[in-house]
Amino acid sequence: MTRKPFPAKLFSGHRTTIALVLCLFGLCVARSMLPVKQRAARGAADDNRVYLIHADVLHYDRYKNPDAQILNGHVAFRHQGATLYCDSAHFYEMSNSFEAFGHVKMYQGDTLSLFSDYAFYDGNEQMAMARYNVVLKHRKSTLYTDSLNFDRLYNVGYFFEGGKLVDKDSELTSDWGEYYTETKQAVFNYDVQLRNKKFFLTSDTLYYDTGTSVAHAVGPSNITSGASHIYTEDGYYNTNLDRARLFGRSVMSDKGKWMTGDSVYYDSKQGTSEAFDNVVYVDSLNKNMMTCDYYWYNENTGYGMATKRAVAIDYSQKDSLYMHADTFKIYTYNIDTDSAYRKIHAYNKVRAYRIDVQAVCDSLVYNSKDSCLTMYRDPIVWNQSQQLLGEVIKVYMKDSTINRAHVIGQALSVEQLPDSTNYNQVSSDEMFAFFRNGEIYEADANDNVLIVYYPVDDSDSSLIGLNYTETTQLKVFLENRKMKKVWMPKAEGTLYPMSQIPPAKRFLPSYAWFDYVRPLNKDDIFNWRGKKAGTELKVVARKEAPLQHLSGKPSASDSIPVDRPKSPLAAPPVPRRSGADTLKAPALPADSAGLAAPADSAAAAVAPAAVTQPAQAEAAGADGGEGNREGDKAGGTAAGAAATRPEDGAGAGEGGA
């Protein structure tokens, strides 16, 4: 029997199938081997593998965790210059990562260490995620938190469940933050608190440099140190040097005083404050403030300065007083004693405005020791329609209220009448005014007293005429701002009808009306307007008291002519006349126009003298005694002596002679 061969077609199909199977098998083997070679090559080139250095026990759990090598006992890993130790770990060699449990410790170099109860480390990302009782130490700074991700690639640690950073002097806490180990910079957000022995800071966002100990607060922030407080939304504070740089209208306050500016610099150790642009300083206890574009103050020495559009404002009264000068300076004496006092200097183009009083001068000084405000070089004070000037004007305060005023040298008081063409005038060598509870009760003019006064007809308020009087002393006593009596020792005067007034008698030799210099409002204090040429006060040579010499011999320097500061027109001295030459003048009614004078200005203080008729010299016993002072008046003046000598003259009766 002949055996039949397999069909050629069938044989050919089987060979093709076998060939395909063999090819697919070879391809699978090749593909399975290729990735192993690539990973090995890449690992050898980058050396990014996490190395297991030691473990007491290593085993596998193919059911619960088939991808992990389970390690126990003194486990140690090494990766990219960092070494990690723990009690136990799960090592995922394929993903180049591990989990560490118990007493986790990671060391990077000799400056950085990380401790926690648990950590997951990703070798590919170089990221350590530490949890529970986390402590990150870097040089002299230590960060405490419960959750920290540390990026070794960028050397930055992130905490997001509350953290505390401690360096040698400060402790900083927040809800969320970052710490950069290379730059030593820390960023803290949400409920930020920075504490040290000297201050306490709260903020919304804080940048802190642990190397320089400089904190940068962003957003609403408060810094408290004892009674001092700083509010800022953009401020830098050096905790080592105790220096602050504050921007964005930050506010510094201390015991009822506060200051702000576009930028403020404060040095706590030196005790200095410096502020620039739109500066505002407020003393709420004494109810005064200062505005300027530059301010500097040393709290240790008590010296300060304000300049660049500087304005001092007193708001202790119903209406605020605004005063401008090129520069204000403050000096404090006996600063650490119970007898400390201050002097405030304002100089160059001083101008002041309040609704009821205005003033100008070249410079002034306020001394808190005797509560005296002294105006120098062409001082002028206005009150309503009245003007007062002299070489020097002194105003003495008591309990923040005017107590007395003193005009020294070429004193002139002028009142403009309602017709704006006639003026009541008084000139003398010096003038005084005395106040009680803020109300004027006496005004004096001493030596070479000249008076131009227009009496008023009570029936129709018309002017009766011009009364020109010369005397050595004038006293006016007031009650409720109205003249009660006038006193003069000896007087010579003439009453001219309105139609027969000599032109030369209308104005005193020293008359000057400086209404064009007067500040118009609080903004006009910045506009300096000098006096017209020829209207300045004459420079008068004065003699000083002789100097004492041990030899007892007179010296050429015993009498030195001293130039007084410039002022308006000087009145020539009036020759003294004997009683026989005195011309008695008619008395004035007590309620003549213009007698009422405001009680809170130096101009008003002497104004009554400008509108009073000299009284007849009569013997009057007790009335002269009403001129006695309450200890207010400066001793040794001619006015004070005359007030208690009725034999030299008599006080006029109620409302005049």
UniProtKB/TrEMBL annotation:
InterPro entries from the UniProt entry: OstA-like_N
Region (Disordered) location: 548-657
Top-level taxonomic group: Bacteria
Comp. bias intervals (Low complexity): 585-621, 635-644
Domain Organic solvent tolerance-like N-terminal span(s) in chain numbering: 48-204
Classification via Pfam families: OstA_2
Annotated Gene3D superfamilies: Lipopolysaccharide (LPS) transport protein A like domain
This protein's name: Organic solvent tolerance-like N-terminal domain-containing protein
